[in-house]
């Protein structure tokens, strides 16, 4: 029984690693870094219509989108679309205590979920490239939010 459970866990970890490696955020990571990152995440499926994060709420988790699509809104204006490879809700875990956006699953969305502690551990991996890519994604998200606040972003923004 234990052997079967270990095979199932190893198969799941291999799948997580392959899924992570297929994203731009993790594509340059070594196998060991991917293993560590995968060990910090939990797989979940969010049904269409599910509110992933709500603007103004405290953030406790962030999500790596593996499949499906979610809509990212700020003050009722669409600022982006989260698709495979996107990281969602990282801003509220990077010091911005309240979520700056509402993210709603437009389709069923497969995600890997990290808690605040797991996200901090991931950023502290010692992998400068990964930390830089997370910071760059957060900067793009802050920029899109800022542009909406100043009225210079049209509805239907691009990939989050």
Average pLDDT across residues? 84
Helix content: 25-40%
Number of helices: 4
The largest β sheet comes out as:
4 strands, antiparallel
Class based on secondary structure composition and strand pairing: alpha+beta
Strand content: 15-25%
General shape: globular
CATH level 3 topology of the domain at 42-149? Jelly Rolls
The number of distinct β-strands equals 8
Task: Based on the coordinates given, report the CATH architecture of the domain at 42-149.
Answer: Sandwich
- N- to C-terminal separation? 42 Å
Q: Detail the poorly predicted runs.
A: 1-7
Radius of gyration: 16 Å
- What is the N-to-C succession of helices and strands? HHEEEEEEEEHH
Descriptive account of the structure:
The structure is a single chain. The chain is α+β, with helices and mostly antiparallel strands and 160 residues long. The protein contains 4 helices and 8 strands. The protein starts with a helix and ends in an 11-residue tail after the last helix. It has a domain at 42-149: Jelly Rolls (Sandwich). The chain is globular, with a radius of gyration of 16 Å. Helix content is 37%, strand content 24%. Residues 1-7 have low confidence and may be disordered. The protein has a 4-stranded antiparallel sheet with strand order 1-8-3-6.
């Amino acid at each position: 029984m234990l052997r079967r459970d270990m095979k199932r866990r190893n198969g799941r970890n291999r799948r997580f690693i392959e899924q992570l490696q297929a994203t731009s955020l993790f594509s340059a990571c070594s196998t060991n870094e991917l293993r560590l990152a995968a060990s910090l995440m939990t797989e979940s499926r969010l049904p269409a219509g599910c509110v992933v994060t709500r603007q103004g709420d405290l953030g406790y988790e962030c999500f790596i989108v593996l499949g499906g699509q979610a809509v990212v809104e700020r003050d009722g204006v669409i600022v982006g679309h989260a698709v495979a490879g996107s990281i969602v809700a990282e801003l509220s875990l990077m010091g911005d205590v309240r979520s700056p956006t509402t993210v709603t699953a437009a389709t069923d969305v497969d995600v890997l979920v990290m808690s605040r502690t797991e996200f901090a551990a991931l950023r502290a991996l010692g992998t400068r490239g990964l930390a830089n890519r997370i910071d760059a994604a957060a900067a793009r998200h802050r920029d899109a939010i800022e542009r909406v606040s100043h009225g210079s972003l049209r509805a239907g923004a691009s990939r989050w």
